[in-house]
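Sequence in, structure out.
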Amino acid sequence: MGTRWELHPDRYFDPDPTQRGVARELYGLVADLPIVSPHGHVSPALFTRADAGFGSPAELLIIPDHYVFRMLYSQGVPLEALGVPRVDGGPVETDHRKIWQIFAENFFLFRGTPSGTWLKQELIEVFGVEEALTGESAQRIYDQIEAQLAQPEFRPRQLFERFNIEVLATTDAASDTLADHQTLRESGWSGVVIPTFRPDAVVNLDAPGWRGALEALSASVGYEVDSYRRLVQALEQRRAFFRSMGAQATDHAALTAHTCDLTEPEAEAIFARALKGEATATDATAFTGHMLMEMARMSIDDGLVMQLHVGSFRNHNAEVLARFGADKGADIPIASEFTRNLRPLLTKYGNDARLALILFNLDEDTYARELAPLAGHYPAVKLGPPWWFHDSVNGMRRYFDRIMETSGIHNTAGFNDDTRAFPSIPARHDVWRRASANWVAGLLVRGLVTMEEAEEMVRALAYELAKRAYRLEDIPAMQSRKSG
């Protein structure tokens, strides 16, 4: 057996002994609270069969996880060697033990990264791994995980219950039939898994495969979406269906926070050009900005929480996109601006408390300058947690330091894990809960809050804010509707 692996009980806490002791105490109050996962990308199909499994350790932890293979790719490991499927169906490695061996030999690359933090914690706490993952220990650990994945207690539904997940939201295309969600409803299983409405593929005219997505939307509503007016009608119809299936939120991704209010003839003209393949980049930007306004209007009407993720230049590596498709670890942040870009939407809807608009951004420079002041003023606006590249111990610390003094914690949305990697969910929430406890402990030892206030704050950050922001406070009623 190799070097013994352990998790330090005071990890992520301040080295100052006074603050560390308080952080430890506060963390103890929230460590075992249920997990609310209101935004993520776990497939609902994972839970549709009681006897469903995860496949091999490589299928679970490496092949589908761009957090993992992007790091290996950055060091010259071909994606083919990691079993990542090619667009053209060309050959890739199919021996999952070989894939795991490469991963293990390069695990040192993840030291000090969020991915390394999550992976180590899930290997230890979920799968009981007791020795450090290295090239030498790789196959023993593979055998251990493979044997456990074959056991009933490691089925997705059993882990859902073991992880103490109260609700899990998926992310689903506007045209999705939600057949897997319907299967879950009819299965009698008690887990609460709800859809989230994501219309990017049809409202972002420059999205890859826009025409195909529009055809899928047409098929889902039973008529051809051949005009802007019909697009709006179809989206309203689909939102109502998602709502009937338990959805509580929508999700929108845009390169920038640009919003604008087009007239109907202007929107129709842009949509007509898109149908003919003649829409320009300026058209696409304007149309997305206008549709964000429309989505806000619809959210006021139907009550769905609106999430807006801004600042990712998607698929930056053209060669990887061509060979392996989208979402392969080549999304790169850009500088963002919200104060002017979001003003048209906020002028029209920001003072209406019926709108719940949760903002996410990859540009930390906007935290104190723009996002915290916006959330600290407009009733409709709340701030999502540190997102993607900033979902880390240091990213959370910077977020707390730059956001909270201006916005206050109650204008934030708590935490969501935003993950495809289901077994990493407890580890991701644990990092947030420890970081939250440490930050609140810093306020307490500096005399800014009392212990009673600190306890209330850390519970809110760990659990209550997410439920409130995503309108998930009535989970028992959601379960009752599902069972009925």
